[in-house]
Specification:
Layout (H helix, E strand, L loop, with lengths): L1 E10 L3 H12 L4 E4 L10 E4 L2 E4 L4 E3 L5 H9 L5 E3 L5 E4 L4 E3 L4 H6 L5 H15 L11 H7 L4 H15 L9 H11 L6 E4 L2 H15 L3 E3 L6 E5 L2 E6 L3 E10 L3 H7 L6 H8 L4 E10 L9 E4 L4 E5 H4 L9 E8 L8 H18 L3 H4 E13 L20 E3 L11 H17 L2
Parallel strand pairs: 1-2, 1-13, 2-10, 7-15, 13-19
Antiparallel strand pairs: 3-4, 5-9, 6-9, 7-8, 11-12, 12-13, 14-17, 14-18, 15-16, 16-17
GO molecular function, one term: oxidoreductase activity
Organism: Brevibacillus panacihumi W25
Protein name: Phytoene dehydrogenase
Length: about 425
């Protein structure tokens, strides 16, 4: 059994692992990334019949305040930003289409709220932007609104926004402090939603470029099966082929996988409590079409059924063959619905109905469909009884954690980037 020694060993080559490794290698650290499968984790791009399908939601929220922008500047990443056009976003209420209140213009155009309710809603948004309202960690957003006697129409608007940004059919369960932290960023940004040209693969390629340019090592098909510990330190990770030693270790694999790695260590029980958490699961139904179906919107949110369709190819022309179109539909699931075959079939039918309604003729243009009935868009679901994993635990002083199940800012990929950045800073501060 051979031994290789590194300054930092990163376990997991998803967005958190790759961004951690890229940042630390750029600061002079000798870094190795170990990934059991393919790079990207859940954020991968799959090419089928000339179409680039992204697994997982690949929008970046509040991009001008995103940690990915920090990585972009400090690592000189080449990112082809494609900004969402809020004027092409519509809510489908069942009997009409109306503007999404994603910005001030959309708020005053939307028919979801009456004039007086718009003023009340705007007031709530203003308080959020100015951080006059921060919520309470022990109150759900529903309980908080009831306690504050928020108007029913305004309540519904706030929960509708939460549904579409937290990928949930149960927005009322979101902790109010998480809700307000998220929206204070979103409402103060100039770029609320952005896509990456080339999809996740373009970003993965950029991180790998930086790692390798700084003499880092990227090992795929390398499964970490356990760790070797001495006193209050991790000293090595074990793979089937070799033992890899390091000074610092960053674990960027989900807690369910992490439990196996830390069996028979002091951390096994501590990690196990985070492994019991429920992920945010959705049904994703993408369709690649041979010819574009032109409609006056690039985003439709079916308010009644909690389903949205995004015309990915409107923003990223590289994801389709010439003249083609790629549409992505996402249907939210309640936790009780996950794995229920009847419900899943019903959700797929609802998606197809929405395609029929807004993209007529799509069936005739269909080249390739891609359906995922259990797509995990975030490892942790934000509810009152679930808290994120800390980025470090006191048992082992040279062990850190990053990923979208960890403490950090934002939602979805932003949690991966922010936890990765915070971990990197902690390691660099040790020098």
């Amino acid at each position: 059994m051979t031994t290789n020694h590194y300054d930092v060993v990163v376990v997991g080559g998803g967005l958190a692992g790759l961004s951690t490794a890229a940042y630390l290698s750029s600061k002079g650290k000798k870094v190795a990334v170990l990934e059991r499968g393919q790079l990207g984790g859940r954020a991968v791009t799959l090419k089928i019949k000339g179409f680039n399908f992204n697994f997982g939601a690949h929008a970046i929220y509040a991009r001008d305040s995103s940690v990915l922008r920090t990585f972009e500047k400090e690592l000189d990443l080449h990112i082809d930003w494609q900004d969402f056009n809020p004027n092409k976003a519509k809510y489908d209420t069942g009997d009409m289409l109306t503007a999404v209140p994603a910005n001030v213009q959309g708020l005053f155009q939307t028919k979801l709220l009456k004039a007086f309710d718009k003023v009340l809603f705007t007031f709530e948004i203003l308080k959020t932007m100015l951080k006059m309202e921060t919520g309470h960690p022990h109150l759900s957003i529903q309980k908080w609104m009831e306690k504050k006697h928020i108007n029913e129409e305004v309540q519904e608007m706030m929960l509708t926004l939460a549904s579409s940004n937290f990928f949930t059919r149960e927005p009322e369960k979101i902790p109010s402090d998480v809700f307000f932290n998220y929206y204070s960023r979103l409402f103060t940004t100039n770029k609320p939603v952005a896509y990456i040209g080339g999809g996740w693969q373009a970003l993965i390629t950029e991180f790998v470029r930086v790692i390798e340019a700084n003499n880092g090592t990227v090992l795929t098909k390398t499964k970490v099966e356990g760790v070797r510990v001495e006193d209050d330190r991790v000293v090595a990770v074990m793979t089937p082929e070799e033992e890899i030693t390091g000074d610092e270790f960053v674990c960027c694999i989900p807690p369910k996988e992490m439990v196996k790695v830390f069996q028979e260590t002091r951390l096994e029980h501590a990690i196990a409590q985070y492994a019991e958490y429920e992920p945010t699961v959705v049904v994703v139904y993408d369709v690649g079409l041979k010819e574009r179906i032109d409609v006056p919107y690039s985003y439709i949110y079916d308010k009644q059924n909690n389903i949205f369709i995004t015309d990915i190819s409107y923003y990223d022309h590289t994801c389709v063959p010439e003249g083609g179109q790629l549409l992505q539909a996402t249907a939210y699931l309640r936790q009780s619905e996950v794995g229920n075959k009847e419900i899943i079939e019903q959700r797929k039918q609802e998606i197809e109905n929405l395609y029929d309604k807004h993209f007529p003729g799509w069936r005739e243009q269909l080249v390739v469909p891609r359906v995922s009935t259990r797509a995990i868009v975030q490892e942790i679901k934000w509810t009152m009884n679930q808290k994120p994993m800390p980025i470090s635990l006191p048992d082992y002083r040279n062990l850190f954690f990053a990923g979208d199940w960890c403490e950090g800012q934002g939602q979805l990929s932003e949690l991966s980037f922010s936890s990765a950045y915070n971990v990197s800073k902690l390691i660099l501060e040790k020098e």
